């Protein structure tokens, strides 16, 4: 397998819901493994996601998991990372924008910007920031 870079999102008990939401937008195959399926002794997190991976037909891959309740790190939601979608497939990118904005907060409307591209930014219903840039057809 070739090397690849993809986001790994951390959740606070709602990874299943979030990854299923992203699947409804991007399509593809979603594999979810729970803490319980790996033998976690804490029954309170048995159904939480230890590792999830969505592989969309367009080559996008999103991974994610629920943070264990005893994890002292603060890498949950809002860690200063934004997820960027960009390209010249205007119809596809507008579709992702529409899906991701459901119950989210648009911080920059998806519209033409001074550099000539359409750009928008939003925080989805799970607290993740998404940036969408549709390349201008003018070279």
TrEMBL record:
State the superkingdom: Bacteria
Read off the SUPFAM superfamilies from this record.
Glyoxalase/Bleomycin resistance protein/Dihydroxybiphenyl dioxygenase
Cross-referenced CDD domains: PhnB_like
Gene3D superfamilies tied to this protein: 2,3-Dihydroxybiphenyl 1,2-Dioxygenase, domain 1
Glyoxalase/fosfomycin resistance/dioxygenase domain span:
5-132
Q: A single Pfam family, by name?
A: Glyoxalase
- Write down the InterPro entries for this protein, in alphabetical order: Glyas_Bleomycin-R_OHBP_Dase (IPR029068), Glyas_Fos-R_dOase_dom (IPR004360), PhnB-like (IPR028973)
For this protein, the record's PANTHER family field holds: PROTEIN YJDN, PROTEIN YJDN-RELATED
Q: What is this protein called?
A: VOC family protein
What is the protein's species of origin? Antrihabitans stalactiti
